[in-house]
């Protein structure tokens, strides 16, 4: 059964689906320069020295369609750090009447417009390493944003899909518009022209929230007389004069060895959406920016690249713009991440320092019955250790299985075996120790 997440409107007729946690990187109608405070100086300098290029000529569109280059979107290549050489060579190899020319750096809103001029059915729009998905031809009235959750089971509270409802009807065709990149576990349906009015980092009411959590949070709370709200300690509605000394105290405590994270939250547009999302049963929120309604929500799957579709009626009418969050490849990836970071592959092994520190390949390992929940039971060796070396506790390290798999993928199949198993490497392959 669909649930209502909110409403969105698109006065320009264009839609942009974007991770709104990344809007601090969105230039709107300004030159696409990376702010100095967001990255190390060398990264900022490299990003801001990049160039944009356009494929031109009688057969430019056909040539662009033949290219298989990540840097090329439609007839454009954005943010190239070393000139157009690779794109120009690829265009030349098509044998078509087309060339590549450098153009002035294109603001991100202009990119949406130019790409949709050529590809109104959908285009991926890059910005400083991320990308959103834009679609043209939406009704300009207020539209419902709806979502459906996964089937009953372990994922039933997660979103399967979320969409903007453009018209009533039964879809007969779904056309892929691109993949949207998510890096901060959230998405928003927005009008790209209205996003020129989006405000990041400047509080509309002059107030801030300040939160901290993790590790040594209780020690920090004792020193600063902080109060816990759900899963974090939080001060709300602070003025600049109130927040500044608290922020500096948190910095000082962390610089002096306490382990925790903290977050300054100005009451900007990003904050306004998140505040609603954190208290909503649908984890969604609606705000008005630049005379347009925008709906944001948590993906419920974390980060990744999610496919976006235009759902069409039999006569071609646009019924929905939909992001498929519970696509099979997303579910598979999520299961993998859960195993690696919260499941059996997150459990610990006792590993010889010859492997853990010296980088020697694993040549012998066995599995005992674990005596603690976090212990996998695996004991891992390079195979050249003496008994005296093994008996010295200083020559052992504790590592999660995922780190060993990262260094040696062949270990993953071995780690599936039950307690009592033992393996050694023979001719580059792990075989049961009692069979070699």
Question: What are the salient characteristics of this protein?
Answer:
single chain; 436 residues; alpha+beta; Substrate Binding Domain Of DNAk, Chain A, domain 1; six-stranded antiparallel β-sheet; 12 helices; 26 strands; 24% helix; 34% strand; globular; Imm33_dom
CATH topology of the largest domain: Substrate Binding Domain Of DNAk, Chain A, domain 1
Total E-strand runs: 26
How confident overall, as mean pLDDT? 91
Number of domains: 3
The order of strands across the largest sheet is 1-9-10-20-19-11
End-to-end separation: 57 Å
Supply the CATH class of the largest domain.
Mainly Beta
Outline the secondary-structure elements:
Elements: E1 3-8, E2 14-18, H1 41-48, E3 51-56, H2 60-66, E4 72-73, E5 76-80, H3 85-93, E6 99-103, H4 108-118, E7 123-127, E8 130-136, E9 143-149, E10 159-165, E11 173-182, E12 186-190, E13 208-213, H5 217-224, E14 228-229, E15 232-238, H6 240-255, E16 261-266, H7 269-279, E17 284-289, E18 292-298, E19 304-312, E20 318-324, H8 328-341, E21 348-352, H9 353-356, E22 364-367, E23 375-381, H10 387-391, E24 396-400, H11 401-407, H12 411-414, E25 422-426, E26 429-432
Parallel strand pairs: 21-23
Antiparallel strand pairs: 1-9, 2-8, 2-12, 3-5, 3-6, 4-5, 7-8, 9-10, 10-20, 11-19, 12-18, 13-15, 13-16, 14-15, 17-18, 19-20, 21-24, 22-23, 22-25, 25-26
């Amino acid at each position: 059964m669909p649930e209502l997440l909110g409403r969105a409107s698109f006065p320009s007729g264009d839609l942009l689906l974007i991770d709104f946690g990344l809007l601090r990187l969105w230039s709107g109608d300004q030159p696409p320069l990376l702010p100095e405070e967001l990255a190390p100086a060398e990264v900022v300098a490299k990003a801001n020295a990049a160039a944009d290029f356009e494929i031109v000529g009688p057969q430019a569109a056909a040539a662009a369609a033949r290219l298989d280059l990540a840097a090329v979107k439609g007839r454009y290549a954005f943010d190239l750090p070393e000139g157009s050489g690779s794109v120009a060579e690829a265009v030349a190899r098509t044998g078509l009447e087309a060339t590549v020319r450098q153009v002035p750096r294109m603001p991100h809103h202009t990119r949406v417009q130019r790409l949709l001029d050529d590809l109104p059915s959908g285009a991926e729009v890059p910005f400083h390493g991320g990308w959103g998905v834009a679609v043209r031809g939406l009704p300009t009235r207020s539209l419902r944003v709806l979502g459906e959750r996964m089937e009953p089971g372990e994922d039933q509270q997660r979103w399967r899909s979320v969409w903007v409802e453009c018209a009533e009807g039964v879809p007969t065709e779904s056309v892929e518009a691109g993949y949207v990149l998510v890096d901060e576990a959230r998405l928003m349906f927005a009008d790209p022209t209205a996003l020129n009015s989006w405000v990041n980092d400047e509080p509309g009411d002059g107030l801030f929230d300040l939160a901290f959590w993790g590790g040594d949070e209780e020690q920090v709370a004792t020193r600063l007389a902080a109060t816990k709200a759900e899963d974090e300690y939080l001060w709300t509605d602070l003025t600049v004069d109130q927040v500044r000394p608290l922020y500096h105290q948190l910095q000082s405590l962390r610089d002096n060895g306490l382990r925790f994270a903290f977050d300054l939250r100005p009451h900007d547009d990003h904050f306004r959406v998140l505040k609603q999302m954190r208290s909503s049963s649908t984890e969604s929120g609606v705000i008005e920016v630049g005379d347009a309604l925008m709906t944001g929500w948590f993906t419920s799957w974390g980060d990744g690249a999610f496919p976006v579709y235009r759902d069409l009626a039999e006569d071609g009418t646009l019924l929905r713009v939909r992001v498929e969050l519970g696509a099979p490849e997303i579910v598979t990836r999520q299961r993998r991440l859960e195993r690696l970071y919260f499941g059996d592959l997150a459990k610990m092994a006792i590993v010889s320092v010859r492997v853990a520190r010296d980088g020697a390949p694993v040549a012998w390992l066995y599995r005992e019955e674990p005596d603690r929940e976090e212990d996998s039971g695996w004991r891992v060796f390079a195979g050249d250790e003496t008994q005296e070396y093994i008996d010295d506790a200083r020559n052992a390290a504790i590592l999660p299985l995922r780190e060993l798999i990262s260094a040696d993928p062949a270990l993953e199949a071995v780690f599936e075996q039950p307690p009592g198993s033992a393996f050694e490497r023979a001719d580059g392959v792990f075989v049961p120790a009692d069979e070699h």
